[in-house]
Amino acid sequence: MSAWIGQGDVVLFQGDSITDAGRIRDNENDLGKGYALMAAAQFSAKYPEKQVQFLNRGISGNRVVDLQQRWDQDCLNLKPNLVSIYIGINDTWRRYDRNDPTSTDKFEIGYRDLLTQTAESGAKIVLIEPFVLPVPEDRKLWREDLDPKITVVRELAREFDARLVCLDGLFAQASTRAESAFWAPDGVHPSPAGHALIAKAWLQAVGAIE
Where on the tree of life does the source sit, at the highest rank (predicted)? Predict the structure, then answer.
């Protein structure tokens, strides 16, 4: 099943703080402490003969517009064979903490621009949809803004023949087994267990595990 990631491929993780996960920026090979590290480690342990190189260029606080501004340097110039993009929660969050909203239309236009450039480079694409859990309670209000953006990500995945990691339902389901704060203490940033959930879903999406 792992043929989707080939021999000697370069796999790039892109996104915001959830992807960044405290990586050391001065070390271009540092993968942070989150799902990117977990997914890369498990893949490499299972398929050592493939010699896949994993890179992380997630930056905390980023929105789609920030990815657009650095896409040449932090994506295309790295010549990845597979690009995994996890963006969107800050496009919602800034509406509520800084009164700096990103409309669904602007989000979609910017995201499509990223995907068009990536597809034209010949890279395969994985899209990870954003999620939010009701911790604290006011996060429930974010649904009005985030849900249409999640729909955009799903539609873009189909349009660009990308693999989709459906996190919103996954974390909702997980929250029936342990309280939401167990998976994401602030409703947004995953706990280690939450990162492990994402890593497993990512590996399943690329066909590395059943």
Answer: Bacteria
Low-confidence ranges of the chain (pLDDT < 50): none
Instruction: Name the residues annotated as catalytic.
Output: 17, 186, 189
Structure tokens at 152: 């955009």
Per-residue confidence (pLDDT) for residue 48, from 0 to 100 = 97
Q: How far is residue 77's CA from residue 28's CA, in Å, rounded to a whole number?
A: 13
Residues in the chain: 210
**Torsion 25-30-33-36 (CA) sign:** positive
The pTM is what? 0.98
| Pairing between β-strand 10-15 and β-strand 82-86 as defined by DSSP bridges | parallel
Cα 164 → chain centroid: 10
> How many angstroms separate the CA atoms of 31 and 120, rounded?
26
Tokens for 158? 């189909």
pLDDT value at residue 18: 98
Helix axis angle for 167-174 and 192-205, nearest 10°, is 130
What would the pLDDT profile of 159-174 be if each residue is shown by its tens digit?
999 999 999 999 999 9
